[in-house]
Amino acid sequence: MTTLLLARHGETVDNVGQIMQGQTQGQLTANGIAQAHALAEQLAGTAIDAFVSSDLKRSVDTCAIIAETHGKDIVTTPLLRERDWGDFTGMFIPDLKDKEWPPNVESMPRLKERARRFLAFIRQEFPDQTVLAVGHGIINKAIQSVHYDKPMHEVPRMANAEVRTLML
């Protein structure tokens, strides 16, 4: 059985500014860097075989801080990217209330299919290992939704630098 430690990246400048980041790179704040170091300390005594990250900078930077304490490299994958918010990307989140969604927002079926492919990737590439994977709020929610066969709204939101354990 593979143990997946699913984490969300540390706080970013756009998180603080309430900007819809989507698949932009993002930049950790000083607090986000501190959150990543705190998570690294929390996981210091955990035997982790592999480190996987979204290929977006905010997740790579978070994962690298944690992996460094274990002396490991990281593998990146676009499967762990945040949801593509299309034309909503870069917008002030409070301004989006009651706005019609643009057609270029990644659909829920596509997001969940990407989550399924990510879980299959982890099972195939890291059988019987413990893997820390650093992703983003919505894709992590989709991964848990698929894994537990629950609707997205039943999966609690993950805080920055929070980790949850999934047994695959």
Descriptive overview:
The chain has 168 residues and is of the alpha/beta class. The chain contains 5 helices and 5 strands, in the order βααβαβαβαβ. The chain has helices at 13-16, 30-42, 57-70, 108-125, 137-148, and strands at residues 3-8, 50-54, 74-77, 130-135, 163-167. Strands 3-2-4-1-5 form a 5-stranded mixed beta sheet, sandwiched between helices. Helix 3 links the parallel strand 2 (50-54) and strand 3. Helix 2 runs parallel beside helix 3 and helix 4 packs across helix 5. The model has no long low-confidence stretch (mean pLDDT 97).
Biggest β-sheet: count, sense, barrel? 5 strands, mixed
**How is the largest sheet built, in terms of strand order?**
3-2-4-1-5
Helix content: 25-40%
Q: What ranges have pLDDT less than 50 throughout 5 or more consecutive residues?
A: none
Number of contiguous helices: 5
Count the E strands.
Answer: 5
| Spatial separation of the terminal alpha carbons | 6 Å
The rounded Rg comes to 15 Å
Q: Approximately how much beta-strand content do the residues carry?
A: 15-25%
SS content category: alpha/beta
Average of the residue pLDDT scores: 97
**H and E order:** EHHEHEHEHE
Chain-wise SSE layout:
Elements (H helix, E strand, L loop, with lengths): L2 E6 L4 H4 L13 H13 L7 E5 L2 H14 L3 E4 L30 H18 L4 E6 L1 H12 L14 E5 L1
Parallel strand pairs: 1-4, 2-3, 2-4
Antiparallel strand pairs: 1-5
Helix pairs in contact: 2-3, 4-5
